[in-house]
Design brief:
By secondary structure, the chain is of the alpha/beta class. The chain contains five helices and six strands. It has one domain: Ribosomal protein L13 (Ribosomal Protein L13p, Chain: A, Alpha-Beta Complex), CATH 3.90.1180. A four-stranded parallel β-sheet has the order 5-2-1-6, with helices on one face. A two-stranded antiparallel ribbon has the order 3-4. Strand 3 (80-83) and strand 4 (90-93) form a beta hairpin.
Amino acid sequence: MVNTLSYRTLSINKENADKKWHLVDANGQILGRMASKIAKILRGKYKTNYTPHSDCGDYVIIINADKIVMTGNKMSNREIFSHTGYPGGQKRKTPAEMLVKDGTSVVRHAIKGMLPKNKLGAAILRNCYIYEGDEHNQKAQNPTLLNLNDLR
């Protein structure tokens, strides 16, 4: 007779997820590659007990977000599109213009685009803290420094 209890799939929810704090230095990192790895960490896809329908990922603190790099001429030639919701309310900005106004907006926009487009994605994005300089407000959580080049 087969023990059927050993074949149960473990479903992790927000309460019993083992969440850790990670610190990422964005200085000199390529935006898209960095954002995709951070989105995977926030989502929890590097964990063995990943559950798609719950917030089981880790917390990420990003410092030096204003020092990111884009390959080619994307910093000045690429246009990021937004719409106000009114007729003719189209807005186009380059990443360089966004960095002048708010140093964290380009990184937040890139990570948000790689998360689910629903309430779960909005909740997961709240686990990401982005700062322009070297200082951050989460020193009490003792975040571990994470090298993104070690991740696949």
